[in-house]
Amino acid sequence: MLGNNPIHPVLLAEDLDAARRFYHEQLGLEIILERDGAIEFRCGAGTKLVVSRSTTGTADTQTQVGWEVDDLPAEIAELRSRGVTIEEYDDPGLKTEDGVADIGFAWMAWIIDPGRNALAIMQVKA
Predict the structure, then answer these.
(1) Cα-flanking dihedrals φ and ψ of residue 76, to 5°?
(2) Which pTM value belongs to this model?
């Protein structure tokens, strides 16, 4: 049953060197395996994130993957200290303040990787 197994999302990147720097150096993810055309990064609870070389990258601006964290302000502060830009939005139905949007059941922030993948960081409200 798939619901009982870890999932391993695959994101696209035109520049794997830029992706390696972003995910490993800026986000602090451990590299599990690096091979021609893809890099695998360790995430929590038996999951991994794979970044695969692509000739086109990502054409969609929607969130591609997200992390659920216990302390969003601490995560944002850590990311900013590593030079990661936290996105700001002021759209109908989505407004951030200091990079954080209140979406009702949670607070969310977004970052964009070098392959133009939108990545979410979310803290569920108690």
Answers:
(1) -60, -45
(2) 0.90
